[in-house]
Write a structure and sequence with these properties.
This protein is an alpha+beta fold. The chain is built from 15 helices and 14 strands. The strands form 5 sheets. The protein has a 5-stranded mixed beta sheet. Strands 1-12-2 form a 3-stranded antiparallel beta sheet. The chain has a two-stranded antiparallel ribbon with strand order 4-11.
C-alpha cells in the first residue's frame, strides 16, 4: 500500500503563531520546505522574492475532486433579528461576490452554491425522482419556490444588476417590516434601527466582510466588524455570542453522516460548543439528517443529501462565499515529485522524495540550510 510513499527519513514541523512570520520564514529558506498558500492576493502578486526569480522556489496548482467546504457568512438565527427568512434572504442579496472576486481575489474563486459542493451530493436543478418523493412529505411546510424554481444566488455582473439586487434586498426587508427613514433602516413599528456586528479573529476578515458591510450600509443598516483574539473568538463562538460570523467553514465528505447533526440539528443548536453556529432549529432538517444517516444505499444517500442541501439553501441560514477547487503549493526545488498525483486530495507530499543533487545545489547557494 505504501510503495512509493513515506520517502523521508525525518520530517520537521515548525509552528508559527503569525502567518506573516511563517511567510517570511518560507521566503528566506531553512524553516519551511513547502507551504500551502491560502491567500489569493499573495499567490497572485507576492511570489516575487529572489528565490522565486532564480527558480529555486516553485509554484504549483493541483486540482482536487474532493468536496469543498461550505464557507460562509453565518447568521445567528438565535437572535430575533435573523429569525425571518426574508431578512436572511435580503442579506444574501446584498452580497456582491463577483466584484469582490475580481478586485480582491484576482478572479481565483468560484461561488459556492451548495452545502455539499464538488460532487454528486450537491443539489441542482429542480427536485426529481427519489429526492422529490422525500420532499413531497414536507411540501406544505417548505417554500413553494423550492419545487418550482432552481436555487440561484444573486449575481452582480453589471452596475444595473447590482442596483437590482440591492432593490430586491430592500423589498425583502420591507416585507419583513423594515423601512428606510432618513437613510437608516428601522423597524416599521418600533423605530428600532437594524444593527449587525460581524465577528472575526483575523485582520484578513476586514477584507472578507468589508464589501458586504459597505452594501449593507447603503441599505441603511448599521453594520460593523469586530476583530477579537483567538481566545475571545473561541469563547464567543462556543457560547453563540455573535450576530454574524465574517467567515466559517463546514467541511463535508463523500459519505455524510452523524456530523450533520452537529452542523445543523435542533439539538446541536442548544448545545454550547456545537458546530451549529447558525442555530438551525428546523424539524424538517432534523428529519432529513436522519434520512442521510440511515440511508440504505448510495442512491438513497444521494437523494436524502440533495433534499437536505436544498432545504438548507432555501432557508438562507448562511450567505455562501467561495471555493478554489485546487491546492496552491509553493516549495523549495529540492524534491522529486511524481507526475501523477491523487485526484481526490490534489497532492500527496508523502509521495515526494529528496533529490540529492537539487538539495546539494540549494545548500551551496543558501547558507540557511535549504
Amino acid at each position: 500500500v505504501k510503495i512509493g510513499r513515506e520517502n523521508f527519513d525525518r520530517q520537521r514541523f515548525s509552528y508559527f503563531l503569525d502567518d506573516n512570520a511563517s511567510w517570511q520564514a518560507f521566503t528566506k529558506g531553512g524553516f519551511e520546505d513547502f507551504r500551502v498558500e491560502s491567500r489569493a492576493q499573495r499567490w497572485a502578486v507576492e511570489y516575487t522574492f529572489p528565490a522565486i526569480k532564480a527558480g529555486d522556489v516553485r509554484k504549483a496548482e493541483y486540482p482536487t475532486t474532493s468536496p469543498e467546504p461550505m464557507q460562509a457568512y453565518v447568521m445567528n438565527t438565535r437572535r430575533p433579528l435573523f429569525q425571518d427568512v426574508r431578512v436572511r434572504q435580503a442579506l444574501t442579496y446584498a452580497y456582491d461576490f463577483e466584484s469582490m472576486n475580481r478586485t480582491i481575489f484576482f478572479g481565483a474563486y468560484t461561488r459556492t452554491d451548495s452545502y455539499f459542493e464538488g460532487g454528486d451530493l450537491a443539489s441542482s436543478g429542480l427536485p426529481q425522482g427519489k429526492e422529490l418523493e422525500i420532499l413531497q412529505q414536507y411540501r406544505d411546510k417548505l417554500p413553494p419556490e423550492l419545487f418550482t424554481q432552481e436555487f440561484k444566488l444573486p449575481v452582480y455582473t453589471t452596475p444595473q444588476s447590482g442596483r437590482e439586487n440591492l432593490r430586491k434586498a430592500y423589498d425583502l426587508f420591507k416585507q419583513a417590516g423594515w423601512v428606510n427613514r432618513g437613510g437608516k433602516l428601522v423597524n416599521e413599528k418600533t423605530g428600532e434601527p437594524f444593527r449587525i456586528e460581524f465577528l472575526g479573529n483575523d485582520p484578513v476578515d476586514e477584507r472578507v466582510a468589508g464589501p458586504l458591510i459597505d452594501n449593507l450600509r447603503r441599505l441603511g443598516i448599521d453594520a460593523t466588524l469586530r476583530i477579537v483574539d483567538d481566545s475571545q473568538y473561541t469563547n464567543r463562538t462556543r457560547a453563540f455570542d455573535f450576530d454574524m460570523l465574517a467567515v466559517a467553514g463546514f467541511q463535508q465528505s463523500n459519505s455524510p453522516g452523524n456530523e450533520q447533526r452537529d452542523f445543523f440539528s435542533s439539538t446541536a443548536a442548544d448545545t454550547s460548543g456545537s458546530r451549529n453556529l447558525a442555530g438551525i432549529k428546523n424539524p424538517i432538517v432534523d428529519a432529513l439528517i436522519d434520512r442521510v444517516i440511515f440511508a440504505t444505499d448510495r442512491d438513497d444517500l444521494i437523494a436524502a443529501t440533495h433534499a437536505l442541501d436544498r432545504v438548507l439553501l432555501w432557508n438562507y441560514y448562511m450567505i455562501p462565499q467561495w471555493h478554489l477547487g485546487k491546492i496552491r503549493i509553493a516549495y523549495w526545488n529540492k524534491f522529486g515529485i511524481p507526475e501523477k498525483q491523487p485526484a481526490y486530495s490534489g497532492v500527496d507530499q508523502n509521495s515526494w522524495w529528496i533529490d540529492p543533487d537539487k538539495e546539494k545545489a540549494l545548500a551551496a547557494k543558501y547558507k540557511s540550510g535549504n
